[in-house]
Amino acid sequence: AHSQMGHSASYVQYSMAPCRVELRNLNARMQQKFQKSLRSQEYMGGGSETVQLPASWRPGNQLLAYLHEHKARVNQLVALPAHRHMFGSCSDDGTVRLWDATRLQGNAYVNRSKSMYNRNAGPVVSLAACEGGQSLVAATQDSIFVLRLDSAS
């Protein structure tokens, strides 16, 4: 009986929700798939130049980046033509965030936004670029506001 007790005390057991286990497994599979994709791009010499996608291209079912800073559902992503590698996002958490797409490469499955705006006016339900991508127009349930982008930051 002593040896059984000694054996059971030699490790710690903990439980995890099934959805958390599934999410971890999915994240690991997507990371492996992405790494394989990067290796094939490097092998074919296509890792450094910018690829122009056709207008008909639509994203597939592949995790490209995890924008973890939003604390609620992301409602919209918008490209910023004036800031070539930047895009914006809006969320039910009430924030508008700017992201640098060049930072979404490599092992960057968890990314940090370049800047954030929170008006504390409730969920931001819509986002659009205006003035050639120099500004963002965001909408909540009760208001519309314009954010001017500072090219220096």
TrEMBL record:
A cellular-component GO term for this protein: late endosome
UniProt WD repeat ranges: 67-100
Pfam families hit by this protein: WD40
Listed GO MF terms: nucleotide binding; protein serine/threonine kinase activity
Gene Ontology annotations of biological process type: late endosome to vacuole transport; macroautophagy; protein targeting to vacuole
Entry coiled-coil feature ranges: none
UniProt keyword terms in alphabetical order: Nucleotide-binding, WD repeat
Name by which UniProt lists this protein: Uncharacterized protein
